[in-house]
Amino acid sequence: MNLLPYDWIAIGYLVLTGVLILIFHKNVARWYLYLFARVLCITGIVLLTLTDEPTLFPVQFLRDWYPLSTIALFYLEMGKLTQMVFQRYFDETVIRWEKQVFKGMPSLELSDRFPSISLSEILHLCYFSYYVITVFLAAWLYFKGKIGPFQETVFAETLTFNLSLLCYPFLPVTGPRYLFEKIQGPLSKGFFFKLVHSVVSRGSSKGTAFPSSHVSLSVIVLLCAFRHDSTAFLILLPMCVGLTLSTVYGRFHYAIDALVGAILAGIIFLLTTILF
Question: How far is CA 175 from CA 60, 62, 172, 212, 270, in A?
């Protein structure tokens, strides 16, 4: 068996959330299905890592890339689990923190202060680039044959994201898009504005605002790019900066969500440089 660090992250997340589901099962509909799915997933990971020898390309590719697929799978599942510990949301607490730190609410004020259609479209495009950012650096390194940096990046990404997910059952926060009016006026007519808000309305998991996993993941990818590949860093820099700003500008997250997400990414990056 050849379990890599990111395999342990996936297994650890499945075990920890499984224990939480078992403890708070009365608050989780069909809780036994979640436990059964975890047994299957852990079994699959173990089977993929049974040998140290090179395997056929499709199997090896699955073995290398399955951790990043868990980002989407674990996130979508978390929408059903954010209320298993507390049957309420803590937006009022996070709003209070936001006002204390920023002396206001940037999540409501930023788009009003800078009501530029061009700016709005650029930032919403950056927000949409999240789906590219998630895999871009890993693919860049993988297909350049930099397997060590690839594995380090996957480790950093999955650890950052999974730690964000583990926060949500203990501090479920909906975010401003659920509590306050969506941006109106000319900004709402933009193509990328409509596209992003349509995607978010269909695929977001309620209660997963604090910390912002969008920001934590984009920042950790940017830091890994800075460490491993300057060209990839320069490509990712405007997208990651724009995405961080867009989470607040577009009223997807409170500014404090973004700040804590960035701090989490910085901590994980420092940990990663020590471990690798």
Answer: 39, 35, 9, 10, 28
